[in-house]
Amino acid sequence: MKKTSTAAFDAIEAALGGLDPRAPIPGTRPDLMDEVAELKEMLTPLLQTLPQAEPPEDLFDAIEAEIDGTPQNQTQAIYAGDVVWERRSEKIWKKVLGQDPDTGRTMYLLRCLPGAQIKHHPHQRAEHLFIIEGELWMGGKLFKAGDAQTSAPGSEHAVIDMPNGCLVLVSA
Question: Are residues 92 and 153 in the same domain?
């Protein structure tokens, strides 16, 4: 009889043997333990037919080369220290977090100091606001931290007042 591949057995054991009905893992099905035991019994003889194998020495280098060759424009990461706040007015600062050159959409933070105000303005495209902290008044309505507002393309904002200041995430 061939020596059982330790790595393969460990993988099967981890996959099938990890369900302990005495200490169920959230999201698992302890009621399927009998079926798991049957599968384990069926698969164990297969493990004994597998030869002992080690990955090729250059496998991880090949994986890293493949990852390094992946186009980097599929995702964009912005770290807090990578982008500086730009002053937009005396009491409003803007920090651009991402831009889509194909659509022109931009995601940014607005830091509005107490007493800040944004004038009435139209929207060329949809705009989404999420108030992270503080509050603002828009069109006679109060928006507090956790509130969101969406404006359709072609719509217009009334004056936005921030008497106590706020931090807002904007996607426009």
Answer: yes
CATH number of residue 101's parent domain: 2.60.120.10
Same domain as 84, residue 151: yes
Each residue's pLDDT tens digit, 16-56: 555 444 555 666 677 777 887 888 888 888 877 888 888 88
User: What b/e readout covers 62-73, taking b as 16+ CB neighbours within 10 angstroms?
Assistant: eeeeeeeeeeee
Is 157 in the same domain as 87?
yes
Would residue 75 count as lying in a domain?
Answer: no
In the chain, the number of structural domains is 2
Q: What is the pLDDT of residues 73-88, one digit of tens each?
A: 567 778 878 889 999 9
Structure tokens belonging to residue 99: 């831009």
Burial degree of 147 (CB within 10 A; 0-12, 13-18, 19+): middle
Q: Could you tell me the pTM of the whole model?
A: 0.57
* Burial degree of 46 (CB within 10 A; 0-12, 13-18, 19+): exposed
Asked whether the beta carbons of 136 and 149 are under 8 A apart, the reply is: no
And the tokens for 129? 């606001």
Average pLDDT, the chain: 83
